[in-house]
Design goal:
The protein has 269 residues and is α/β, with parallel strands linked by helices. The chain is built from 12 helices and 6 strands. The radius of gyration is 20 Å and the shape is globular.
Length: 269
């Protein structure tokens, strides 16, 4: 019954997210409608409802810190994506406070993160840290993770970073879901389109359309915004102002103080 309730809550949360995003109709196949109209037989005692969030990862520990340590130990040993396990320097599991009220989710580690074993430590990470500190937090106050825990491998002879492929994301997402289950933050910030797609894969619309609009991930308020790397590539006053406006909305949702100085950042003359 608990698993059924989790699946039901997840379904309701997902439909509410679609509604917040402006979706008014959900397509349903004729076979589904016919199946819903038929009487449902009583479930067998041994039958278990399907898990909407795929694989469940079990952790040990009576505290969030203990559970996260247990999860991390399992994550560091993961070799499910053999090509990524063979090419990575180390797993970039996540970092921060397991009791955090705010969590940031990015897409995948880059070369800097792969070398350090910590998310968001390159140029984009430096900008994210500056944003976090301007919000009145320390980096150690929040939790930072990625959809993918290993750096996506590059073709031989090519440098740079690439986005994770959908099969890679699907394989790795249970780790992120488990992290969020442990932390239970009061708000999540999805950094960029890939992070948004990983958390709410059925949601239509790009990050430009959805940024700044509150969505729900399993009843947790989630704010999509631009990835810091995008802001660095297009370092305009408008883009910096938009991402900061999203962070002000996050502070307001968390009930954190917003000073006049914070309100006036990046305002047009």
């Amino acid at each position: 019954m608990n698993e059924f309730r989790e699946a039901l809550d997840a379904t309701i949360s997902h439909l509410e997210s679609l509604k917040l995003a402006g979706v008014t109709h959900v397509p349903v196949r004729r076979e589904t409608l016919e199946a819903l109209s038929r009487p449902v037989a009583a479930p067998q005692a041994a039958a278990a409802p399907a898990d909407m969030f795929a694989e469940r990862i079990h952790t040990a520990g009576s505290t969030k810190a203990g559970q996260m340590a247990s999860l991390r130990a399992q994550g560091l040993a993961c070799v499910k994506c053999k090509h990524l396990a063979a090419s990575r320097t180390q797993v970039v599991f996540g970092v921060g406070n397991p009791d955090a009220e705010l969590m940031f989710v990015g897409e995948a580690p880059g070369a800097d993160e792969d070398a350090r074993g910590e998310p968001f430590v390159g140029r984009a990470g430096q900008l994210l840290t500056k944003i976090i500190e301007t919000m009145g937090f320390k980096r150690s106050d929040v939790y930072i993770g990625n959809v993918l825990k290993c750096r996506p491998n590059m073709p031989e002879g090519e440098s740079g970073n690439r986005q994770p492929a959908d099969p890679e994301m699907q394989t790795c997402l249970p780790w992120l879901h488990a992290q969020i289950d442990i932390i239970q933050p009061k708000a999540i910030v999805a950094l960029g389109a890939v992070a948004l797609r990983g958390l709410l894969p059925e949601l239509s619309g790009g990050i430009t359309k959805l940024r700044g609009r509150w969505l729900l991930y399993r009843n947790i308020p989630m704010m999509p915004t631009y990835h810091p790397a995008f802001v660095l590539r297009q370092y305009t006053m408008q883009n910096r102002r938009l991402i900061w406006e999203d962070m002000l909305a996050v502070l307001e949702r968390l009930g954190r103080p917003i000073t006049p100085k914070m309100q006036n950042y990046f305002k047009s003359e």
